[in-house]
Specification:
Layout: H1 3-39, E1 43-52, E2 55-62, E3 65-71, E4 76-82, H2 100-114
Antiparallel strand pairs: 1-2, 2-3, 3-4
Length: 115
């Protein structure tokens, strides 16, 4: 492989890396935009549970009312309205960065307990 082949290889790898970076930031932008649009709307899925591989039951907030709905492959079925006081909130997931060292220590501790 001559120096021309090495230059071509490096060029292809650089273009590939550039495409990956552009794809990453585009995905983050679109995901953040879609998440912001959903979070500020009047419709929100509060919780859902899988009943069969293609059917779910979900609790949906529309404006200030809560509804239980059945969701199938091709249909959504109203089940009932749920009083707001009956809704149990889950704690919000922790967002932010994680310390890799801390996660590794927890994993080691779990593995040590299993032995």
């Amino acid at each position: 492989m001559g120096s021309e082949g090495i230059v071509q290889l490096v060029t292809v790898l650089a273009i590939f890396a550039l495409v990956l970076v552009v794809t990453y930031f585009t995905t983050r932008f679109v995901g953040g935009y879609a998440k912001g649009k959903v979070a500020t709307g009047n419709i929100e899925i509060i919780d859902s549970a899988k009943v069969t591989p293609s059917k779910y039951i979900a609790i949906v907030r529309v404006a200030s009312k809560y509804f239980a709905v059945g969701i199938g492959k091709d249909e959504i079925t109203y089940l009932s309205e749920i009083p707001e006081e009956d809704i149990v909130s889950r704690p919000a997931p922790v967002s932010g960065t994680y310390d890799f060292k801390e996660l590794m220590e927890k994993a080691k501790a779990r593995i040590g307990k299993k032995k």
